[in-house]
Every structure is written in C-alpha cells, then in structure tokens.
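Lab notebook: predicted structure, single chain.

Context: the supervisor wants predicted structures on file for every construct in the current expression panel, including those that have not yet been purified. This is the next one on the list. No modifications to the sequence; it matches the entry in the shared construct table.
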Amino acid sequence: MNNQAVFADRRLGHVELAKGKKAEERTFEAILKFAYGLDWFKTVRFATKEEDTRGIDLVVETRDIGSLYVQVKSSWVAATRFKNHHPRMVVAVLVIHFYEYEEVVWKKVLPKLLEVRQEIFRRRNQQN
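Prediction complete. Output recorded below exactly as produced.
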C-alpha cells in the first residue's frame, strides 16, 4: 500500500470513529431526554474505560435492578459480530446512525432496554 492509500485509510478510520462517537452521543441524549418518564430509570452515563474494554458504550442506571448496558453500532453487520463475540453478555445492542433524530433513536432504544430488563429479571428468577 502506498503512502497516499495509508493516509486515506487512516482518514477513513478517523471519520468512522467520529461517526460512531456521534451515534453514541445521540443515543445518550435520547435516553437523557425521554427516559425520565420511566419509573425505573435513574440516570445514564458514558461507560468507564474498563467498561468500554468489555464492549459497553453507555450505562443506564435503574432504581430497581441496577445497571443496563448499551452497545451502539453503526451497522447490522457490526451488531451481529458483537453479539456473536459476546453471546452471554446481557446488553442492548443498537444500530444507530449519527444523523438520526433523538426521537428515532429513542424508538430503537426503549424496546432494547425493556428486552434487557426482562432478561435480567428472567436470569434472577432462575437463580432463585
């Protein structure tokens, strides 16, 4: 690969990272804006460095069951790859595009958060 190709590849990587970060921010903003109507919602925050290395982008803190984890991906391929690499992880994997409005993002987020909550409840009931 020549120097121009390497530079173009790096630039594309930076652009993709920026789009991914914007999608995470858009998801954070949507949760912050719309989740306060949910009786179980406490707050949302960006993942710590340690959580991020485990594949978590956002953490939704709840009043009843603790933390719900969110992973934001830019494509179904990336989302499927993540799920295949972390089959036992209870996490809301979302495909969010950086240009989507908060309302659209929220319509994707809420069902996934509810799904994760149900799975956590199910696993806890199995342990008892």
